[in-house]
Amino acid sequence: MAGLKPTIIRGGLESLYFTGAHLVLRPFVGGVGAILTLHHVRPPRPDRFQPNRLLEVTPRFLTRVVKALRRSGLDLVSLDEMHRRMTEGDFSRRFVCLTFDDGYRDTLQWAYPILKEAGAPFAVYVPTSFPDRLGELWWLALEAVIARNDRIGLVIDGRDRKFDCHTVAEKRALYEELYWWLRALPTEAEMRGVVRHLAAYYHVDIVAFCEELCMSWPELAELAADPLVTIGAHTVNHLALAKLAKDTARSEMDLSSSVIEAALSVRPRHLSYPYGDRTSAGSREFEIAAELGFKTAVTTRPGVLFPAHRRAMTALPRISLNGDYQRMRYVRVLLSGSATAMWNGFRRLDAA
User: Fold this and answer.
1) Residue 343 is inside which H or E element, if any?
2) Which pLDDT score, from 0 to 100, does residue 1 have?
3) What's the pLDDT tens digit per position in 282-335?
4) Could you tell me which of 106, 98, 21, 25 has the C-alpha nearest to residue 66?
5) Contact 316, 309 (CB under 8 A)
6) What does the alpha-carbon distance between residue 124 and residue 53 come to, in Å, rounded to a whole number?
7) Closest of 317, 226, 231 to residue 32, by C-alpha
8) Which of 114, 111, 108, 118 is nearest to 70 (CA)?
9) Domain locations in the chain?
10) Phi-psi region for residue 184, left (φ > 0), alpha (ψ -120 to 50) or beta?
11) Which helix (H) or strand (E) holds 319?
12) C-alpha span between 342 and 339 (Å, rounded)
């Protein structure tokens, strides 16, 4: 069952492409531009158990995407330029923004040379606890616990549960089950507590992932010195803001900007909500971001940009360059707006 959803999505993308429906629909649902979401860019790994592979694409794929965008006549623009076009109603040319969440070191190592050579602007959204080496990449800790063990014990809803995960298929299914169970817990504190307990019991160093995978402040400063690069805020602790008290959510957004300003001498004017789905950021968070003076804030709700989004600049949709769908025909379908239009029931603005 864990692989059923990707199979259905892939089938939908294939159908839209090979029937030519994406080309027919594009004039009606293509919008004025799009914001692309990326996380990791690095060479493929041989491990068979990679439940977070959706968060990474290869350097070769990124290179192909950038070249295809250039050939297609789309403008590759910064977030500031996107904001200008949206607020001024300058829709003479379609555009694309490239954004990277979490500030991973491979953005500097692998993505930056590709984008620098192409002269392509991009943004990096930084959760400040990551370069401070205090962050918890809990989804990687969960992956490591399952990868290193054939049997996992966990208390769920007050009951001791044992899970066998000898095979790769069992590990994938267990990761999917536990990931979404954790995401559904009512508070971030409860969720983080469960993962910390798992990591400690199964000898996984949850904090070590920051040091290994995330950029330090000097590395971020190296990127920030390039005019092609925009540094955005991604809160302090990468928490699901909708699960926090209003003042805490506000502090997560505001303090992250202050920390980045102190470290890099530039105050971010653009924000990415952690996780970014409907359960993590909604109208309350959109209002707080606007009150704090962010020019734009992005979700992970799927969609392209329409003129109507100028009324909701802190509730912008994005299109994920997903590691499970690294084919150029899928990118063409997604940028046509056809797949996300169908996903959204052809509703253009989703800011509630």
Assistant:
1) helix 338-343
2) 41
3) 999 999 999 999 999 999 999 999 999 999 999 999 999 999 999 999 999 999
4) 98
5) yes
6) 19
7) 317
8) 118
9) 4-135+217-343, 138-201
10) alpha
11) strand 316-320
12) 5
> 160: alpha, beta or left, given left = phi > 0 and alpha = psi -120 to 50?
beta
Question: The tokens of 258 are what?
Answer: 């202050």
Could you say which DSSP state residue 110 is in? I
Q: Is pLDDT of 86 > 70?
A: yes
Q: Is the pLDDT of residue 3 over 90?
A: no
Considering the segment(s) 4-135+217-343 as one domain, its CATH architecture is: Alpha-Beta Barrel (3.20)
Q: Nearest to residue 210, comparing CAs of 108, 103, 322, 124? A: 103
More confident residue, 68 or 4: 68
Predicted confidence band of residue 352 (pLDDT cuts 50, 70, 90): confident
Element (H, E) at 141: helix 138-148
The C-alpha angle with vertex 131 and arms to 125 and 133, in degrees rounded to 5, equals: 135
